[in-house]
């Protein structure tokens, strides 16, 4: 991986996207989105994660993330992805109303067989494509992209209407997470 897409300076915030394998719509279910939010709260409280923005889409999540200590953002990413992967897969296996259970598990098992890093199941795609946000123009561009993603996807008419997004917080309304405002 080239230096362009690595976390090299924890002084800056980074734009990150985590995508489920095969772009499967996992976060169309409230229970799985809530697992993400709970994990983010934990990372803020216990690991020093700073969240500048977020948007949970049905098959992927966008973030602007930073951290309080040098050298820890990559570790937070690793731990967050590992925990959410295991927790959501466990919920899929145990949830009695998940009609897609067998298919979802089969797809994740199929993805794991193609990746030597996984034993049984793979939930997230491997790459994060971190982009260092070291200028105001980059911050503004990514913030706009994140908040308008549900609108562009045709899920809502205005960004502040999407529940699992920081757009409402930037508009002065309540948010699901504590945010560091970037503008």
Structure commentary:
With 183 residues, this protein is of the alpha+beta class. Helices cover 40% and strands 14% of the residues. The protein has 5 helices and 4 strands. The protein has a 4-stranded antiparallel β-sheet, with helices on both faces. It is globular and about 45 Å long.
Low-confidence stretches: none
Number of domains: 1
User: What is the number of E strands?
Assistant: 4
- Integer average pLDDT: 88
- Tell me the series of helices and strands, N- to C-terminal: EHEEHHEHH
Range of strand content: 5-15%
List the helices and strands and how they pair.
Blueprint: E1 13-19, H1 30-47, E2 49-56, E3 60-67, H2 73-94, H3 101-113, E4 131-133, H4 136-152, H5 167-170
Antiparallel strand pairs: 1-3, 1-4, 2-3
Helix pairs in contact: 1-2
Summary of the model, kept short:
By secondary structure, the protein is an alpha+beta fold. The protein has helices at residues 30-47, 73-94, 101-113, 136-152, 167-170, and strands at 13-19, 49-56, 60-67, 131-133. InterPro entries: RAYT_transposase, Transposase_17, Transposase_17_sf.
């Amino acid at each position: 991986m080239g230096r362009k897409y690595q976390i090299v300076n924890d002084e800056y915030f980074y734009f990150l996207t985590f995508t489920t394998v095969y772009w499967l719509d996992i976060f169309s279910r409230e229970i799985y989105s809530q697992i993400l939010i709970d994990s983010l709260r934990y990372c803020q409280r216990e690991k020093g994660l700073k969240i500048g923005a977020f948007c949970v889409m049905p098959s992927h999540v966008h973030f602007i993330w930073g951290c309080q200590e040098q050298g820890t953002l990559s570790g937070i990413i690793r731990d967050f992805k590992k925990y959410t992967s295991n927790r959501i897969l466990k919920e899929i296996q145990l949830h009695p109303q998940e009609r897609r259970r067998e298919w979802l598990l089969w797809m994740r098992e199929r993805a794991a067989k193609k990746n030597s890093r996984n034993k049984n199941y793979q939930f997230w795609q491997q790459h994060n494509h971190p982009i260092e946000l070291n200028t105001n123009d980059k911050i503004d561009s990514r913030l706009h992209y994140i908040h308008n993603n549900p609108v562009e996807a045709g899920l809502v008419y205005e960004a502040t209407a999407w529940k699992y997004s920081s757009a409402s917080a930037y508009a002065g309304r309540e948010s699901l997470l504590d945010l560091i405002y970037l503008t």
